[in-house]
Structure formats: structure tokens, C-alpha cells
Specification:
By secondary structure, this protein is an alpha/beta fold. It contains 16 helices and 19 strands. It is globular, with a radius of gyration of 21 Å.
Amino acid sequence: MSILIKNPKVLIYNDDAPRGRYFTIEEKDVAICGDSILYVGEPDDDDIAGTPCISPSNQAAAFKPDIVIDGTNRLVIPGLINAHTHNYMTLFRNLADDVPFAQWLFDGVMPHEDRMLPEDAYWGAMLGIMELLRSGTTCFNDMHMHIHQTTKAAVDSGIRALIGRGISNTEGRSGLERRLREVSEEIERWSGSPLLSFTIAPHAPYTCDKEGLRVCMAEAERRGLRLHIHLSESRQETADMRGRCGMTPIAYAESIGLFDLPVIVAHAVQAEPDDIRILAEHDVSVVTNPASNMKLGNGFAPVPEMLMAGVNVAIGTDGAASNNGLNLFREMNLLSLIHKGSHENAVALSAQETLKIATVNGAKALGLNTGRIAAGCKADLAVLSLDRPQMRPFNNIISGLAYAANGSEVETVIVNGEIVVKDGHCIKIDEERVYFEAANRLR
């Protein structure tokens, strides 16, 4: 399959640009051949030589796309990357609101999780993926508890995903071993999918003790996979860890060698200056989840401070039980505004930096060749209509993406070179079936 997006505006990332001026808006054609971007603008002979979508003459006119998308008054952006989710929890949306964090977790969420059947998890994940795709997200990094269900939903929908079965050993060694067997089973069953990668996902130090974490570390090292873990999400977690071992959760993770492997840390809301130094020294990627952290009363992660220290910061929504949405445009808007306000500094986090967090930084955190629109990158893109009141006039389209866009602008989404959203709807998903199933689960 080959696609040409003709005459759009394109969000272009420049690796060599000075800090805070990473992106420009340029009018360029975007050509896709198979699963990758063939060229942006005019084709370069080095990029297109020998590719099946170009004739031997290597002329732009020789590119004969199967599909042409009219880019007039359209903006092409890299697909957004949601670097921390629990998509099966979309069924818990609006279910346990306006309560303290511990009550939300132990009285609101966990009892429903205990009742959840595998098919419930599938439809919850599918509903979440619909929201992700229709608001321009092309990849998510998920921690789940029902093997095969989120994974199958990802494959059925055509979205890119990193999947990790959440691991704890609160039930002792037998529970840990059972979860690790499930991890192996899931990886072995789905490892052939080109859109799936996997993580080893110990839930947190308060649900996975030192022995459990070390077993997870050994499994990640053996398989060459990233670790995905919650750390320093709340003040209570940090206080409890200090009481047990005299360290913050992040310092504890370093002390047992967790950061000697590639790690994706969710939250880090209560990261202290020494924690930030640790994260930077070990090249740890942190995923900030501003809406979830605010809603549960956990505070604001020190994102500007982490960025200044050189920490790679990505963005996530967390699950719909705590957010209650999965829309990264909303999340980007919140991310920039809360740090301007909390720091009393209008330049604490710019629109440019926020977009980089949701694209380039997310791709780095997850180890993907996505997040940019450039020849050779995987073709994970979203096409937005600029014929929306909130996007006019074109004074600064980059600012508009961070401060005015709400996701309703998304018309077309392409993942791995395949159109999965057309005219604002998921074409590989029976959307009405998803609504029906979601409405009749967990009753």
C-alpha cells in the first residue's frame, strides 16, 4: 500500500534546532510506501533508491500512490504517543470519582477488577483504543492484568502498542510465578505482530518486593525488554518507603539495580532533587500523567526540573478510571498550563516542548522509530483539519496544537502505513458493537 498526502501543512522536527524551537510548519507532500515514510517534500535519491513504490527513473512523478489524500487546509502531525495507560480500565470511567487516592484504589477500582472477566477487559481496551485513535494517538504503552485481551484489541484495531502484564507478588512466590508464566504465554503468542512490543511490568515497589523486582529485572534482561513501573506517585507511597528502608522509591529502585536496565517510570510526581539526578544519570524515561495526578490529589510532577536535568519526559493519560479521558490533546494542554501556573512562570513549559514530549520523547521512551515525520520513519501519522474555529486564524499553528486543539480536528490516522481512522471514525472497529458491549459489562 502506498499513500500520498498532497499539499498539506506538516509539523517538521529538527534535531539540530535550539531548545524550544524544535518544530516548524512547512508545506510539503508526504509520501508513504509500505509501513514507512518514503519522502517529505521532494524525494531524495538516497531515500527512494530501490523502493518498490518508485520506478527506476527515481523521479517524483514516478511515484504512483494507491491512495491520495487532499491536504488542503490540513495539518499532518506525528501520531501522538500515550506512554502510560491501563486501557482495560476504560470500563471504570466515571466510577470512583472525588475520593482520596487510597479509597479510589482499594475501595473503588480493585473490587471491580476482581469481578472483571477476560472479555470485559477486551471490550474495555477496545473502547479505550477507539478514543486514542480518534484523537490522534497511534501508540500506547499499557500495563494490564488480563493476558491476551488488550493485546488482541490492539491487533484488531490496528494501533501500535507496548504491552506489559502487571506483576506483583503480594500473594507470595506462587503468585509471582503465575504472572511470569502469563507474561511468557502472551509474548510467545503475539510476538509475530509487527505492531506489538512487550515490557516486563512490575506494578510498584509496594506491590512487588525486592525479590519480585529482581526476578522481573532478570526476566527483562534475558528477553532484552524494557521495564515499566509506577514510582513516586503519591506522598503516602514516598513516606511509606522512607519508613521501610529510609529511601525514596526512586532511590530504592536505583539501590537494587533497577535502573541498570532500560526503564519507563510512570508518574514520578514526588521526585526530589536527588531523585531527578538519579533519573538523569541512568537515562531513565519518565511518563508524566497530569490529569490523573491532579484528579487523585497526588500533585504535579517536577517536569520542568526533570527536563532541565536532561531526563527524557514523555506523557500519558493513565487509565480512564483516574483521568477520566484518554485524549492526549487535553493532556498536552494541561501539562503546559499547570507548570506555567504552579511555577508562576509563563515560559516554564512551552508549546514546542509539550509537543516534543508527546511525540519525539515518547518514541525515545518506548524505543520506536516514530514520533517524527521524516524519510525512513514508520508511517504513524494523524491528519488534522484546520477548518475548525479553534484552529483559526493561522497565527501560530504550533501554539494552536498545544493550547486550542481538542482532538476533534483529527480526520485521518495512519499506523504503520495503513489508514485506521477515516473521516473521524475507526474503520477496523465496529464502533456500535463496542458501545453496546461497554454498556453491558460489569453490571
